[in-house]
Fold this protein.
Amino acid sequence: MRGMGTTLSAIYFEDNHNCSAVHIGDSRIYLYRNNIFSQISKDHSFVMEQVQKGVLTKEEAEKSRIQNILTKALGLKEGVLCDAILLQPHIGDTYVLCSDGVNKGLSDDKIAQIVKKNLSSGKLAQEIVKVSANNDGKDNVSCVVIKIVASKEKSFFKSFLTLLRRQNN
C-alpha cells in the first residue's frame, strides 16, 4: 500500500572475528558486553531527531504520541540506504534485535536486567517479548537474542557428516 514501509535490523556473521549489522527505522540492535548494555543502532524517527537536537529528552521522546513517525524505512521511497554497522563480536557478547514494540513496553534498563539472566538465547527473547507485551500490548513485539560463545571443536555440519559416514559403513 502507498505510504507504507518497514523497519529492518539484521546481523550477518562472516567468520569468527567480524560481522556486520544493517539497520533502518526504529527497530533496535543492542549489545551487552562486559556488563554494559547499549543501543548500537540509531532510531530513524522524528522524535529521536528532536532528542539529538536537544529539543526533547529521551524520556519525553519515548512517551511522545508521535514517536511512530519514521524518517527512514524500507519501501517509503526508492534509494533509501540502511545504516551499516561493522561489529567485532567477542565471546560473551549478547546481541538483542527487537521491534519498536519492545522498547515501548520496556525501558533499556529493564531489557538489560532480563539479558543479564543466565538463560538461553531463546528463553531471553521469549521473556523480553512476554514482559514487553504485558506492559504495553499496543504494538507488535518481536525479538531475537544472539549469544556469542566459544566455538566447539567440531561444527554441527562436521558432526553430521561423521554420523552419515558411520551409518554408511
In short: The chain has a mean pLDDT of 88. The longest helix spans residues 121-135. Residues 63 and 105 are 11 Å apart (CA to CA). Helices lie at 46-53, 58-63, 100-105, 108-115, 121-135, 156-168.
